[in-house]
Specification:
Length: about 400
Amino acid sequence: MTLRTIDSLGPLAGKRVVVRCDLNVPLKDGVITDDGRVRASIPTIRALTSQGARVIVVSHLGRPEGAPDPKYSLAPAAVRLGELLEAPVALASDTVGPDAEAKVAALGDGEVLVLENLRFNPGETSKDGAERRAFAEQLAAFADAVVSDGFGVVHRKQASVWDLEQLRPSAAGLLIAAELDVLDRLTESPERPYAVVLGGSKVSDKLGVIAHLLPRVDTLLIGGGMLFTFLAAKGHPVGSSLLEADQIETVRGYLAKAEELGVDIVLPTDIVVAASFSADAEHVVTTAEAIEETPFGASGLGLDIGPETAAAFAERIRGSKTVFWNGPMGVFELAPFAAGTRAIAGALTETEGLSVVGGGDSAAAVRQLGFADDAFGHISTGGGASLEFLEGKKLPGLEVLGWQ
Ligand code: ADP
Ligand code: MG
């Protein structure tokens, strides 16, 4: 690990430091529903203001189409940032335009300014390297140094993540360092037994993770929508449950590989099967082999793991020294199908070893189900980024900070 740290930038008092954060918070009617990402960006900002740096925060929010769109303003995030820092935080009404220029010029030592959404500018996400670079140069004009701390975007080759860091002395912030510290332990030297719990919607989203983790883990517990492709690979009918028929062969390959490696792939023994995809749908618990033998026949939908499976998975989790969990066990958004996800989350909070939650929907699920962040060893702020890291991919936003 050779990530450049903030210390490597030398004394920063009076210096203008552009900090790339990930303030991409979920909003409902303009109100932040989960401020986890704003909280996660605080330590780095404080580390900089406390030494008298002039901090210029940049971030994206949502997916505006390269032009200003009030729906995606960073205003709510800037307000929340000010509350958490207990200090005034100014917001520029543009990213690199006249208001940003004026507010950067007026910024005092130890003060914080947020520039408006990076993605209001087409250069931020442009595939055209020259256009991206031109936007990065406009941002660099504000900076004596750059700190990159938006872990959620390090897998993206974007102007503020990749180009800007090459134009000024740059270093990783404390959030990126903390994320890598944990994720690196999962791939390099996990304490054993090491269990990985995978769920979520599609197995095709997680093929890279399965392939990379299979030789490294002791146990793989499979739930969520992907479990049905595993059941089908073993020759079981799955009713109308989520099934990726074109992945059955790949999954058979994983099952064979696991056997060869002595890795336990544990599949559910019981399933909650529903008549339709809705919160008030009639539903029953059946064995994994008998999904089509309910009153709903072949139209039955498997929407959660059953209670016997949840208990068995929980026991495996509690008996492990390292647990990584990605992907809800069922359709947790609908209350009758949240029990499996709740049981697995609970077990992760009870293990004495390192428990890590990765994945955007998984992190949202544990918070929605009422678990506190600090009940887990670590909840990654980056869904896609944490998965790509665990796939062993080289991430541009880390490479540019010296990570190999
Ligand atoms: P993450 O973002 O944590 O990586 P995914 O995006 O892979 O997770 O999957 C999350 C989604 O998977 C949730 O919206 C959930 O409703 C869905 N899901 C879980 N189990 C099932 C199932 N049995 N059938 C259909 N969808 C499911
Ligand atoms: Mg997701």
